[in-house]
Specification:
- The protein has about 130 residues and is an alpha/beta fold.
- The chain is built from five helices and five strands; from the N terminus they run E-H-E-H-E-H-E-H-E-H.
- The protein has a five-stranded parallel sheet, with helices on both faces.
- Helix 2 runs parallel beside helix 3.
- The mean pLDDT is about 90.
Length: about 130
């Protein structure tokens, strides 16, 4: 499993990399710091999965996900954010991304989410009451 990590905070990218590289079947093939770079790296590296922050400078994750899904529909996308709302989750589902993980739950949920999307399932939190 080749994964591209996209987040504008280096500490977050390092934390995600540390979680992912606990597994021998996962290779972090690259990192990007904004949505525009995510699009460029998606074409250059052809990852199987992109873990994509939503709020970033230059181009946000939602816009980047739209572009990537339009041009590389086979690439799996897992949105990753501190912000969680029913509207955001619905928008992600309409885009055709495979999942959404709250950064606050990354330690417990990230590998579960990665496994789900690689099993061709979706991974979205329950609606907020």
């Amino acid at each position: 499993m080749r994964i591209l990590i996209v987040d504008d905070h280096e500490a977050v990218r390092e934390g995600v990399r540390a979680i992912l590289t606990k597994r021998n079947d996962i290779e972090v093939c690259g990192e990007a710091v904004n949505g525009q770079e995510a699009i460029e790296k998606a074409f250059e590296l052809r990852p199987d999965l992109i873990i994509l922050d939503i709020n970033m400078p230059i181009l946000g994750g939602i816009s980047a996900a739209k572009e990537i899904k339009t041009r590389l529909p086979q690439v799996l996308i897992l949105l990753f954010s501190m912000h969680q709302s029913n509207q955001l989750i619905r928008e992600a589902q309409l885009l055709g991304v495979q999942g959404y993980v709250n950064k606050g739950q990354a330690g417990a949920m990230l590998l579960t989410a990665v496994d789900a999307v690689f099993s061709m399932k979706t991974f979205f939190p329950s609606p907020i009451g």
